[in-house]
Amino acid sequence: MLLSLPQLRDSDEARFSCLTERELAERRREEGALVISHRGRYWEQSGAPGYFQPVHLLSRLAPPEATFPSMLCWGFRAALTPETAHEANGTLPVVRLKDLDSYDTSRLSSNRRNKLRKAQRLVRIVQLTGPALLLEQGYGVVRDALARTRHKRTPTQEEYFRNARKYFLNDHWCVLAGLIDGKLGGYMDGYVVDGVAYGVSAYYATWALPANISTGLSYEFAQVCRRLPGVRTLVGGLHAPEATQLGQFKDDLGYIVDPVPIRWGMNPLAQALIRWRRPHAYYRLTGRALAPAQEPVATATSRP
Description:
The protein has about 300 residues and is an alpha+beta fold. About 30% of the residues lie in helices and about 25% in strands. InterPro entries: Acyl_CoA_acyltransferase.
């Protein structure tokens, strides 16, 4: 049933549009992302200016499509079709749920099942249908969460409000929020494209962590995706071996690391800098883990 609070929907009735690659490209442009077309596929600037990847990260490209999408591009990566996987020069270390269609509590570790039961007692999980709650309480949650995790820069309040409104420009974002005694304790977002569900971001207030809100929201998001027709898998980000606590959390929830064959290319100077200054980011960009002795890696795709 619909909840009495405005712009909220019970998570059991969560609904949102599942997109094609082209539709996602159009939506991302509307949200302000830099999206370009290259050999019939859609690419998005991601991270540092000049780095591109397909808007649908797990879309499978043929090798002639998986090339530098722009002459001004300093780096790219793209997943390959299964039949051309032998032409890969790297991997995308995807973290995904194994067998989403059968995912239930039996897939959790016993400790995680106990935490889920606690979360289900204490946390009310809803789908947001408008920005009101985020505009009222969301910035405090995000600021608190990023001060704790430090995994990216904390936005200004103006930036946050602008991004929060983007969720509701169209109907493809699913934003699930956890309420504890009527107060926002955390939320996560995601979307579905061509049968693949992506969990994009998650933020949890420190005061809400004892209620196991992260377990409750993660499990419920998977159930929402599982109920959607045609959704084959749920991606929960990329492998971060340096974040051991996060890795254990994902493992307890039933996620696995699935190295997807890719073609990647990178300006040699940028490649050397990233390998030196940010080896974990280099691993996520290329699938190439650096050994302690800094063993040589495979040569990247040459620019056309």
